[in-house]
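Example noted here:
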Amino acid sequence: MFQQPSAASDFKAADHVGHLLLIYVRELRQGIVTTYGASDAISCDVVVLTNQRGPRCETGVLFFQKPLIGSLRNSIGKDPVLARLAQGTAKPGQSAPYILNPYSEQDAAYATQWLQSVGGNPFQTAPALQQPATPQAPQAPVAPLPQAVPAAPAVASAPLPQAPGVPAAPPQWAAPAQAPTPAPVPQQPPNAAEAQAAMAALGMTQMPPAPAQ
């Protein structure tokens, strides 16, 4: 599942002249500081298919030679390049440059057989672990706030129109309320026997009428 970090590649072109190489081109690096000053290089992962002990994988190989950079820069991030490493013709006062020669049908058949035996690209990296998404609880729908019922506007009562030429009637003042007069208490007629005794004492034969109210 995991791999230990590998040491920097010690791949040297001089040691692999004539070998069949399967080259995965990664990127072009510019301004690399070397003992000869800043220089550009192309970074690759290389399989030496014709290694004496069997195919050998080299990661992070840097090619500084301009002919190799020119042959590989258009293959960055694409299918691997299959070629044989060789040396070209040296110019006066210079060493012979390293170049890539085309592969043969026999070279292609051998490379295809080896790729099938390892299951494809030997430099594929594992995809990043994906954290499972945390399901979110559904949110309860928010009920809309009740709308206040607008109050009906007050209707102002219009004054009654007055007939032309008729003066307005003066305001009528209500008379103060008077306390009710208590009803007279009816007088009970005296007892008939007492009345006759009183009349006899006074020498009267008929009861006098009641005084007028």
In short: The helical segments are 66-72, 105-118, 192-202. The mean pLDDT is 75. Residues 13-118 form one domain.
